[in-house]
Amino acid sequence: MVMYMVDNRGYILIGVLLSFALLSIIVAPLSLSLTFSAQQSASAANRLTALELAQGKLEEMTSYRYEDIGPMNRESFPSPFGFFDFAVQVVVDCPINGLKKISVTVYYPDSGQAGEKNVSVTGARARR
User: Fold this and answer.
1) Distances (CA, A) of 72 to 42, 56, 76, 89, 124
2) Which domain holds residue 26?
3) Segment 95-105 mean pLDDT
4) Which of 7, 28, 44, 57 is deepest in the core (most CB within 10 A)?
């Protein structure tokens, strides 16, 4: 009985190359979805931070004396929140009772796009 050696060296190289090609086809969409998820997570974190800053600024404004509550132009928050800006609008809602409507708007960077977004929180302060 005579055995012949079959040369399989070329087939092994082709098998390895096909495996890498298949792996790259599977990994590419996964990496894109991970990148998208990271952007969405950063955007949600910025929105939550902006809401917390707006609520804090509203509470600060309502703690002022009634006469000292007034509108504020757009300003930046101190560090480490320097990327977040805020503006305050005050409207006397009911002049007889002296109810002031206070709206705090916080502007924050949008990590998914190049622009910015904003959130607003509104409260009221009555004359005591």
Assistant:
1) 28, 15, 11, 7, 16
2) 9-125
3) 87
4) 57
